[in-house]
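Hey, can you fold this one?
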Amino acid sequence: MLKALVLTVIIGTLMLGYWFVRLRYNGIGATSEFFLDPGFIVTSIIFLFVLSVVVIINSVSSLRIKINNDFIYVSYYPYKRKWEKIEVSGILSYKIRKFRPYREFSGYGVRDSQRKGKAYIISGNTGLQLYLKDGKRILLGTQKTQAISYAMDKVMKEKNSLR
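Sure. Predicted structure:
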């Protein structure tokens, strides 16, 4: 998310910088003629449009987690619309933990690291760490640690009582 915004700003700055340099070499200084150049206007409009789209998409994004007795469902709208299913029977253990998004997973979003496992992070630094029986790890970022802890305690207690 943040990478897309930074990348958009960098590309836009480079595009606008190109027009400044190009028009400067053509003898047009930083006058009103410069800002009336059709190429500069089109470039500016494209940059502002792309920047607006990136900001709007990132502002409506949401991480949704549903926990029931059989599955944990995860969706990261609008990037990942389909619900990903994690079987409760495949969970070996879990814990609520603090993490460092940039240090551990290179930022926010849906991340997949061979060393750290998969992560769904939208904001903050607290999440539900799942350790699966197949050796995989999944981190679900959350702001509602008490609610998710209560739900996981309940689901895991029911899972263990069914054995």
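The domain at 62-161 is CATH 2.30.29 (PH-domain like). Let me know if you want another pass with a different chain boundary.
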